[in-house]
Amino acid sequence: MGNIDEYGGGQGPSADVLVVTTNEVAGCRVDQVLGEVFGLTVRSRHLGAQVGAGLKSLIGGELRGLTKTLVQSRNEAMERLQEQARARGANAVLAMRFDVTEGAEAGTEICAYGTAAVISRLS
pLDDT, tens digit, for every residue of 2-59? Predict the structure, then answer.
């Protein structure tokens, strides 16, 4: 199967900026909302991957090379999102989402966005 990081992502347990897809974090309160933050990356596919994907689409199955590229792109967008949140003084990003836009000539744009916040544990 390969390394789990090749086909997945997400935060490790020691992240200094918690990123969640929910509006709240269980056991925490939102002390301050700092506003929207996002991380963006644009990737183009190289010719070899496009040819391989075209051939694979004829017979069916997963496009593993493109899957790895998308995972890398999402992780890069997440890292940039966390950098933006950290720069604003946040320790969390709430309601995180991904937006993916396919550009005909420019490549694929992946944007991770959410609301930067300062949270603390409930006493």
Answer: 566 666 777 777 789 999 999 999 999 999 999 999 999 998 865 555 555 555 566 7
**CATH label, 10-45+74-121, candidates 3.20.20.70, 3.30.110.70, 3.40.50.300, 3.90.1150.10:** 3.30.110.70
Q: Where are the domains of the chain?
A: 10-45+74-121
Name the phi and psi angles at 63, rounded to 5: -95, 80
Q: How many CB atoms lie within 10 A of CB 4?
A: 8
Per-residue tokens: 2: 């390969």
pTM of the full structure: 0.80
Parallel, antiparallel, or unpaired for β 107-121 and 28-43? antiparallel
DSSP at 67: H
By the 10 Å C-beta count (0-12 exposed, 13-18 middle, 19+ buried), 66 is classed as middle
Q: How far apart are CA 44 and CA 105, in angstroms?
A: 8
